[in-house]
Amino acid sequence: MRYNGTLKYQTLTENEQVNEYGEPVAAQVSWSDPVPCSIKTNSDTRKGKYEDGEFRMASFTVLIECVAGFAADRVKLERLGEDLGEYRVLSVEPLVTVGRIQIIV
């Protein structure tokens, strides 16, 4: 597979820790190491506006090599040196016959 970008997925630490007072400690959010991927644009527009500026409305299809148990709620995408942003994962579909995972954000 030819790669044109990288994907970082959000991971949470286990919430089974307690502090010295016996209170649960909040889960910590961190990002994975960059995973090489192939990114294809479904739609991309910067027409979204709000009072102080504008925002990007985009959707991408991402292909990565099969990773056992891949499950993520949020990903950060970068393609050819351009930061595409942070997105919520809409669907994850394993493509078993080609050994890839298709992620739509």
Short description:
This protein is mainly β and 105 residues long. It is 0% helix and 60% strand.
Main attributes of the structure:
single chain, 105 residues, mainly beta, eight-stranded antiparallel beta sheet, 8 strands
Total beta strand runs = 8
Content-based structural category: mainly beta
Task: Give the strand content.
Answer: over 45%
Q: Give the helix tally.
A: 0
Q: Report the mean per-residue pLDDT as an integer.
A: 88
Report the radius of gyration as a whole number of Å.
17 Å
Distance between the termini: 20 Å
Percent helix range: under 10%
Shape: flat
Q: List the helices and strands in order.
A: EEEEEEEE
Secondary-structure map:
Elements lengths: L4 E8 L16 E3 L3 E16 L2 E13 L8 E6 L2 E7 L2 E5 L4 E5 L1
Antiparallel strand pairs: 1-2, 1-3, 1-5, 3-4, 4-8, 5-6, 7-8
Architecture overview:
With 105 residues, the protein is mainly beta. Helices cover 0% and strands 60% of the residues. The chain is built from no helices and 8 strands. The chain has strands at 5-12, 29-31, 35-50, 53-65, 74-79, 82-88, 91-95, 100-104. Strands 1, 2, 3, 4, 5, 6, 7 and 8 form an 8-stranded antiparallel beta sheet that branches. It is flat and about 50 Å long. The mean pLDDT is 88.
